[in-house]
UniProtKB/TrEMBL annotation:
This is Peptidase M23. Keywords: Membrane, Transmembrane, Transmembrane helix. The chain crosses the membrane at residues 21-49. The lineage of its organism: Bacteria, Bacillati, Bacillota, Bacilli, Lactobacillales. It comes from the Bacteria. It comes from Enterococcus faecium.
Length: 94
């Protein structure tokens, strides 16, 4: 009888240890994998949203694309007024 009780206790302890090991391995790994996937997807979306597409480099106001060089075709905004040492003409070009 005592042997049978010891055997049942050992089986219970083994089963419980196996169950805990299973939950520790797969529970935390699944959680870790889920967290890693979430972080990588978030980083990818942030980087993808922040990237600049060269096809969108045209001016949205219908003017010429900005290349950094001076060109005569830049728009002048007559409604802008200069202040202080800046004349209206200089402020309109800025």
């Amino acid at each position: 009888m005592e042997n049978q009780n010891e055997s049942l206790i050992k089986q219970y302890v083994k089963r419980r240890a196996k169950r805990r090991l299973f939950l520790w391995l797969f529970g935390t790994s699944a959680g870790l994998i889920t967290i890693l996937i979430t972080v990588f997807v978030t980083l990818f979306l942030i980087l993808a949203a922040g990237s600049i597409d060269n096809s969108d480099s045209d001016s949205s106001s219908g003017g010429e694309a900005f290349t950094g060089e001076y060109s005569e075709g830049l728009p002048i905004y007559k409604e802008i007024k200069g202040r202080g040492p800046f004349s209206d003409e200089i402020a309109q070009y800025a």
